[in-house]
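Reader question, answered in our methods column.
A reader sent in the components of a multi-part assembly and asked whether the whole thing could be modeled at once rather than chain by chain. We filled in our standard form and ran it. Here is what they sent:
COMPLEX SIZE: two components
ENTRIES:
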Amino acid sequence: MTEKKAKSKRSDRPPTDLAAQLKTQRDSFVHTFFKKGAEFTEELMRENERLRKALGDLEGENASLRTQLASDEAIRDLLRKIASLEREKSTLLSHVHEAEAVSTRFLSRHAQIEEELSNLASLHVASYHLHSTLRLPLVVRHLRELLAQIIGARSFAIYVADESMSELRPLASEGLEADKVASVRIGGAEIADFIAHTIERVFLTGDPFVSDGSLADTSGLIACLPMKIDEKKLGVIVIFALFPQKEQLVPADYELFKMLGLHAAAALVGAGLFTGSTGKLPGVEALKGLLGAEDARGERGPPTVAVTPRLDVDQEAKR
Amino acid sequence: MSADYSCLVVEDSPMMRQLLVFALSRVKNLRVTEADDGVDGLRKLAAAKYDIILTDINMPIMDGLKLVKRVRTDPMHKDTPIIVITTEGSEEDRQRAIHLGANAYITKPIQAPQVIAKVKELLKIDR
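And here is the structure of the entire assembly that came back:
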């Protein structure tokens, strides 16, 4: 009621056109405002959507990178493990090589010991059989077997000096023509023949002659070994040739040669003396008597022994 | 301790026999029996079964070739490995021995390691 009165009194109301115009402007403004607001909101929505999408992409990428990183880490772990295993493998291989080297050394040493044992067995067997009998034919048979079957001599001869020590005569031979086993004169004129000369020299000096025994050696003489007992010369053992399968002399043969020089002489002399005796073994009294007589001789050394084994032993031994 | 394997050595030379016995003593769990010649060898083969036989070829009374022949006709020993021991100049003997049924041969002078290796090979003993 009061407002109506005031309006009618002052009449400051805008004219109707203006009011309509203002209303239109206001409506237009409001419309534009809301429209802009809607557009802005839409734009914000779109931007939000875009950002969400970008975030999703980034998260995906991040996840992928995380996976890759994890994968790389796993690969790095694997690489570290491979390197560690390689080191371990290298260490193990080194141990294996060391073990193989040790094994090879042991095998080599084992083979060497077996060979040494074999050589010792040969020496033992040879000396055992040489001294196992006082029967001269058996001693000679053992010498033959030793030379042929242990040393591998295809042709050989055993020479013994005569009583006057002027000639070496064959006691036994194997694999030789008759003319090859001729006697050898001692201390005579200069001997041109290499073999005869060597036989004489070895007998006189007591120094053995041994070639390398190789197939290339064409001297016709493999070895010439002096047979001595108490520095007294008995004769020589001459090896002319080896079996074809025995390509050359081996270290064991040189040991056998040393043994032969001493043991063959002792065995032959012992058998020779026994064969020439009554064949009865001496009793303790006889041995004591001999021992006393030997002591009484003092430093004069052992008695001279006449060594003349029967020369028909060759045929007997062959039988 | 009982031996796993038995071996008969037929060799007329006591020296060679002793060397062979020594070599064979290096083979673990191998019992060695010795025979003086082929006849003695056959006698021992009739009395017992052996896993391997080593025989010389040149022997009196009955040589190694005859022994190989007899062993191969004996049902108890027809499959027993035989090693013949030969000397130089007996290639014919070696071939004949192989033809008769010997499994291997060794030439004199014998080397212990060679004998051991051959015996182990035929007995299939690991080294």
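What stands out: The two ends of chain B are 21 Å apart (CA to CA). The first helix of chain B runs from residue 14 to 25.
Send us your own complexes using the same form.
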